Amino acid sequence: MNCVICKQGETYPGLTVVTLQRDDSTLVIKGVPAEICENCGEYYLSDEIAQRLYQQAEESLEHGAEVEIGRFALSDAV
After folding, report:
1. Dist CA 34 CA 42 (whole Å)
2. For residue 71, is it within any domain?
3. Which contiguous run of DSSP H or E holds residue 39?
4. Residue 40 domain-assigned?
């Protein structure tokens, strides 16, 4: 797929780091499966991966995380 941001790069499957922020909380999740642009590095998540990522983030916030660095739960992924 062509990157919609830079319009020059092709995407390839890989793993990326996603940073999410809400209010005073920051979550960094490593190892997230994505399509990544070879030119600019923009990443694209499938609907299923995004849903699991947000679910994982909500669980962390429910446990009171203010700053957390973790790995994506691959066993729960597609």
Report:
1. 10
2. yes
3. none
4. yes
Strand partners, 10: 2
How much is the pLDDT for 77?
45
User: What domain range is 70 assigned to?
Assistant: 11-76
Q: Determine contact, residues 61/53, Cβ cutoff 8 Å.
A: no
Contact (CB, 8 A) for 72 and 31 = yes
Q: Torsion angle of alpha carbons 29, 77, 35, 26, nearest 10°?
A: -20
Q: Output the CA–CA distances (angstroms, integers) from residue 17 to 8, 33, in the order listed.
A: 22, 9
Count of domains observed in the chain: 1
Tens of pLDDT, residue by residue over 32-78, are 999 999 999 999 999 999 999 999 999 999 998 899 999 998 764 44
Yes or no: say if 43 and 63 are a contact pair by the CB < 8 Å rule: no
Is 22 contained in some domain? yes
